Structure formats: structure tokens, C-alpha cells
Amino acid sequence: MTPELAAGIAVAALFIFIALEMPVALALISSGVVGLILMGASANIASVLASTPYTSTAKYALFVIPMYILLGCLIANAGIGRAIYRAVNRVIGRIPGGLAATAVGATTMFSGISGSSAADVAAFGRISVQEMGRYGYKREYAAAVVAAAGAFAALIPPSIAIVLYGITAEVSIAALIFAGIIPGVLSCLILMGFVIVRAMRGARTNDPRFGGAQAAPRAKARSLDEAWGSTAEMRAVMRTETIVAPRERRGLARFVHSDAMGIVYAIIIFAIVVGGMYGGYFTATEAGALGAVASLIIMVVEVKKKRASIFQVFAVSMRETVGVVGMIFLLIVGGAMFGYMLTLSGLPRALTTWAGDLDVPPALVIAMLLLILLPLGAVLDGLTAMLITVPLMSPIVLTLGFDPIWFGILVLKMIEIGLITPPIGINAFIISSATGIRAESVFRYLTPFVILDLALTAIYFVVPEIILWLPRVAGLL
């Protein structure tokens, strides 16, 4: 059996294992072992299994992942997402489609803290859908808006997906972070404009489903408090808060205790993570660590204002962080095992040679590679799709002479679009779990957002400078 055929059978085995609901990390390891056995390299399996967990994770660059995740957990459990939602709602909540635009804007800002599309959707799912439902929005449409916002905002740093792509493809993480800012912000602004225009059209036709029947009033703080809660455990913690008698605050004290502080905190975190790298003060890994320290300080300040238990909030955040980090690092080990098998088979080299010999424009080859990611992102989670495809695609991109940073952002966009694409778009299932709305109903309203995001990705494909201008200005290219 040729090594290429063995690798192909191993890839097929991977999808079979996933279909059988085997944990993805174990499916990657098992399919890698299958490939090695078929190639006659079974003697290497024991040594590879023994060394891969260390060699694949003992990397300084990976230190940024637990820092970003801890940062997001601390901020989320401190209730900053709730403050951001209220503050954004006060600015744009009264225009047609204002609550939908609020959900998009708040998710975008929170994405600059959490670094995870799934976390963004989970954080704003219940509160946004409940508030939009109160003011006449179709609940399925409201859920689709939040799910789409999580995918549209996925490129805004800090982003775990960007870090993992940089490590997998062996490209500059700092350059990728800067490259994702403009397309991420632009995508969210266009999405906000889309939901507002849709609401205005609904107002003209007297269709209340999209928020156009009447301007949405400001959400009441009490209803937001009732709707909010990042996890069941955190809701239990916050119920232990000491009730403080309200008193009149003026000047700076009033601002410090206002919801606007949520936006201030988001700006502080973003300035530390991105501004520090832009100024050359520290690396991406150091930025993650400093961002985590800043989020710890913010959490202490906010929890003290609520008279809740700092220790309990910190303990919950640490437990969430450990769980997510363990899952990601196990995926990295599985991806390394699978990648070793692919490299040994020579399949990436064969695919690179094949792509270079094709009598078609190189841009068409890149477009085909990107389109492959859409169905993969729909049936696999984003990290798995990345770990499977990036080792195969990166050599082809370099051989054809395209910028790996530009291609990396396009890959992440296509994978994130897969998160809202039927039949297994994970964001739709997250919002379904948070709100009790059937995922099938959410998918029906997600179709226009998928088309819009694909159109934006096509623009980024045709105009690479949208992606590459900022990292070039920052001196990273």
C-alpha cells in the first residue's frame, strides 16, 4: 500500500470516528495510529505516542492560550458583558433594529475580551433574545442575529483561533492578530447596518419580526439582570451578593458605577493586548499574560462593587479555564499526531506538487481550498477543521506565492462561517441551548447572514490590502 493511500484511508477513518461520536482529540490520535500501521511504521507508534504530548505542547507560544481563556472567563464572570450590553443599548437601542444592532455591537466588543466565538454567543444569547422578544422581534431571528454576530466578530483580537492557526501554520501570531482587526470590525459594522436596514424595511411593510414595527426602547436594568448569567454556577455566586442601599452618586463616582465602565474595560484590555504589541513593548504571549492580569484586577474591582465573593468568582473562572485549556491542548496533541502521520506519508508534498502543476490560475486553486473549508466547518468544530486542513493547505499556498497571513485570515473567516452553516453549525446549537429555540428554526433565519459573510469574504479575497495593510503599517510584514 502506498503511503498516500494509507493517509487517505486514515483521513476517512477520522471522519468515521467523529461520526461515531468519539471525542475529536481521540479520533485524531486514533486515525493517526491507523495511518502509521497501514504505512508499516507500527514500530514508531509507541515512541510517537510517548513524545508527542510533550513536543507538541511544550512551546512558549502556546502559553498565550490559557492566558486569553482566563482573561475571558474572569471578565465574563465579573458581569462586564452585561454592562457592555446596557451601555451599547443606551446609544443605539432606540433606532429601528436597535436591539439587534446592540447585540451585534456588544458581541463585537466582548469578542475583543473573550477571544472565543462560542463564548460570545453563550454570553449574549439569552439576554439578547429575551430582550428582543419583549419588543416584538421574532425570537428565531433574534437568536440568528446573536449566532451570526459571534461568527462575524471572530477575527477581533484576542482570538484563540488566530493563535492556533499561527502555531499550526508556523506564521507570526502578532501579524495575524493585526491582520484580523480591520476585517473583523468591518464585518461587524456591515452586520449592524444590515439588521438596521432590515428593520427599516420591516417598518415600511409593518412587519415586526425584524424590529421595525417600532423603535425599541432602552432595555430596563432589572430585566437585564434577570436575563443575565454566564453559567449556572456564576448565577448562584451572584445571588449571594449583599444588597447595598442605593445612594445618589455624582461626578466621577457616578461614572465609575455606570454601565459605561464595561466599554472602558473593553478598551483597556484591547489597548493592552493590541496597543502593547503595536508599540513594540511586548510580544503576543506577554500581551496575553498582561491582559489576564488586567482582567483579574478588573474582576476584583467589579465584584467588590457588587459585594460578591471574589474567591468564588475567581474559583469558578479558574475551573472554566482549566476545562477549556485541557480540551484545547488535547486537541493540539491529537492534531500533532495526525500531522506527523500526514508528513510521514508525503501527502502534503504530493498535494503541493499536484496544485503547482495544475493548468489553472493560482487564485482559482486558493478559492477551491477555501470553499472546501465551508462544509468542513459545518460538520466539524473550527479547531478540528483547522488542525486537519492547515498542514495540508499551507505548503500549497506558499508554493503558489500567496501571503500566508492573508490566507490565514480567509481560512478563519471560512471556518467561522461554517459555525453558522447547516446542518451542524455549532453557534446555532449554542444559542438553541441557551434560549430553548429549536436549532432548525434558527438555521432558517441564518441563511441571509451566511450569504452576507460569504460576500464579505469574497471582497477580502479580491482586495488583500484590507487584511494586510495594518500589519504592514505595524512593521510585521
Walk me through the topology.
Blueprint: H1 3-19, H2 24-38, H3 45-57, H4 64-77, H5 80-92, H6 98-114, H7 117-134, H8 139-152, H9 160-169, H10 173-204, H11 221-227, H12 232-238, H13 251-256, H14 260-278, H15 284-305, H16 310-345, H17 347-357, H18 362-379, H19 382-399, H20 404-418, H21 426-435, H22 439-462, H23 465-473
Report on this model:
With 477 residues, the protein is mainly alpha-helical. It has 23 helices and no strands. Helix 1 packs antiparallel against helix 16 and helix 20 runs antiparallel to helix 22. The chain is globular, with a radius of gyration of 23 Å. About 7% of the residues have low confidence.
How is this structure best summarized?
With 477 residues, this protein is mostly helical. The chain has helices at 3-19, 24-38, 45-57, 64-77, 80-92, 98-114, 117-134, 139-152, 160-169, 173-204, 221-227, 232-238, 251-256, 260-278, 284-305, 310-345, 347-357, 362-379, 382-399, 404-418, 426-435, 439-462, 465-473.
Q: SSE order in H/E notation?
A: HHHHHHHHHHHHHHHHHHHHHHH
> What Rg do the Cα atoms give?
23 Å
Secondary-structure class: mainly alpha
Distance between the termini: 43 Å
Mean of residue pLDDT values: 80
- 3D shape: globular
- What's the total helix number? 23
**Major beta sheet summary:** none
The amount of beta strand, in percent, is: under 5%
Report the uncertain regions.
Answer: 214-224, 226-246
What is the total tally of β strands?
Answer: 0
Helix amount, in percent? over 70%
